[in-house]
Design brief:
Length: 74
């Protein structure tokens, strides 16, 4: 059995691959196929062997996330 890890963000109604496109220049598209079902076209998938591999990819993707800045009223 193989386990795969991907990291995607929906930002301003667009999909971004946080592991392959850290500058978020190329939004991805959702597709549907009779054989594959619903999938994100072009989304990177990495084979992981253990939780360390998953956490390493998640940390990498976390650094690429777009974050909306909000003002806090004090």
């Amino acid at each position: 059995m193989s386990v795969y890890c991907s990291f995607i963000q929906i930002y301003n109604e667009k999909l971004f691959d946080l592991l392959q496109d850290p500058k978020q220049k190329n939004p991805l598209n959702i597709r549907e196929d009779k054989m594959q079902g619903i999938y994100v076209e072009g989304l990177a998938e990495y084979v992981v062997q253990n939780e360390y591999d998953c956490l390493t990819l998640l940390k990498r993707g976390e650094r690429s996330r777009a974050v909306r800045q909000t003002k806090m009223n004090l």
